[in-house]
Amino acid sequence: MKITSARVIVTCPGRNFVTLKIETDQGVHGIGDATLNGREKAVVAYLEDHLIPLLIGRDAHRIEDIWQYLYRGAYWRRGPVTMAAIGAVDTALWDIKAKAAGMPLYQLLGGASRDGVLVYGHANGADIEQTVDEVGRYIDMGYRAVRAQSGIPGVKGAYGVGKGGMYYEPADSTLPEETLWDTSRYLQTAPKLFERLREVHGPDIELLHDVHHRLSPIEAARLGKALEPHHLFWMEDCTPVENQEAFRLVRQHTVTPLAVGEIFNSIHDCRELIQNQLIDYIRTTVVHAGGITQLRQIAGLAALYQVRTGCHGATDLSPACMGAALHFDLWVPNFGIQEYMRHTPETDAVFPHAYTFKDGYLHPGDAPGTGVDIDESLAAKYPYEPKQLPIARLTDGTLWNW
Ligand SMILES: O=C(O)[C@@H](O)[C@@H](O)[C@H](O)[C@H](O)CO
Ligand SMILES: [Mg+2]
C-alpha cells in the first residue's frame, strides 16, 4: 500500500491544532496529531519541508521501518519538534494499518486489557471553596478521578485556574501573558485545598494535583508530605525534570505518588526515572513521544518497574491524539489513568470521533483505525491564530517556571 500524498492541516477552532493526513493508493487514509502548543509552526515546517517528501511512494504498512528512517535518518535525534512530527506520521500510519485490517487499533496492539479507560477531569476555581464545588460538578458528571487546582490569595494567574467555564486554555494571547508565582503562598494553600476536598467529597474520589514544575526539590518533598493524609492519586511535575536526581530527594521524603513526563519526547528521557523507581506514573503521550511505536516501548520499560502510564491529555492535544491514546490505554497492561480535558464543541465538530465517555471511563469505540477523522472543510473555516503559553515571574520580577 503506497503513500500517495501527505499534507498538514492547521486549524484554530478556539485553539491551534496541527494535523497530518496521509493518503494511500488504496483509498485508505490516516490522520495524526502534530500539535506542539505555542510552537505549532515549527512542526508544520518540519513536516512539510523535511518529512513529507520522504514519505511519498513508501509502503504505508512498514511503520517500524519508517519510524527508524525518520528518527535515525535525521541524524539530529529527539527534541519536541522532531518527535511531534514523527509522532504524527506514526499515528497516521497506525490509523491506516488498522483501517486496512478492518479493526479498531486496540485490537492490533493486542486487544483490550480492560473494559474502559479511567480518566481524570480538570476542576479549578478562583479559591478553595469554588474548587471544592467544581470537583463536585465533575463527580456529578460521573468522573471517578479529578485534578484540582485552586487560585491562590494574592497570586494573579495561578497555574491551572481557568478564566471561567469548563475549558481552560492557557495559550490565549499573541505574546506570553505574564503571571505571578508565590511559592510560600502556594505551599500554604495547596494542603488546605485537599483537606477541604476530603472533608466535603469523602475518601473515594481519586484526587490529582499538578505542581507544573514550580517547586525546588525540598519544597516538593514538603508538599508531598503535607498531602499524604489526603492520599492523592498523584502529585505531578513537582519539580523541573532536567535534573532527574532531584526526584530521589523528593522520593526519600514522601509516599505521595509522583507523575512526570508530559514534556518528555523520547524513551531516553524516561529511562532513569523509571529504572531508579523515582516515579509512579509516566505521562508521555502519543504525539509528543514519537507516536504509538515509541510509547509502546516506554510502557514496556515502565512495566518492568511497576511504573504505570498516565498519558498527558490536555486540550492542546487534539482529538486525533486522544483517540490514539485511548486505543493504547485500552490495551497497555500497566495502564494507570488517562487525562481528559474536554475539547470545545467547535473542536469536536472539526474532529469527528468514535470515543465516548460514560461513568468516569472513556472508550475508544470500535470503528476501524483510531476512530478519529478531520472535517477539512470545517477546519478551513478556522485559520491559524498566533498564540503562546504564559510565563511566570516571582513577586520580585524573577522569571520562573510556568
Ligand atoms: O497536566 C496538564 O495537563 C498540563 O500540564 C498541561 O495543561 C500543560 O500546561 C499544557 O499541555 C501546555 O501546553
Ligand atoms: Mg501537567
Automatic annotation (TrEMBL):
Q: What cofactor does its activity depend on?
A: Mg(2+)
One Pfam entry for this protein is MR_MLE_C
Q: Which domain of life is it from?
A: Bacteria
PROSITE patterns registered for this protein in UniProt: MR_MLE_1 (PS00908)
**One of this protein's GO BP terms?**
carbohydrate catabolic process
Molecular function via GO: magnesium ion binding; mannonate dehydratase activity
Segments forming domain Mandelate racemase/muconate lactonizing enzyme C-terminal: 128-257
SUPFAM superfamilies linked: Enolase C-terminal domain-like, Enolase N-terminal domain-like
Reactions performed catalytically: D-mannonate = 2-dehydro-3-deoxy-D-gluconate + H2O
| Keywords, ordered alphabetically | Carbohydrate metabolism, Lyase, Magnesium, Metal-binding
| Pathway stated in the Swiss-Prot or TrEMBL entry | Carbohydrate metabolism; pentose and glucuronate interconversion
EC number, as in UniProt: 4.2.1.8
State the function annotated in the UniProt record: Catalyzes the dehydration of D-mannonate. Has no detectable activity with a panel of 70 other acid sugars (in vitro).
Family affiliation: Belongs to the mandelate racemase/muconate lactonizing enzyme family. GalD subfamily.
For this entry, the protein name equals mannonate dehydratase
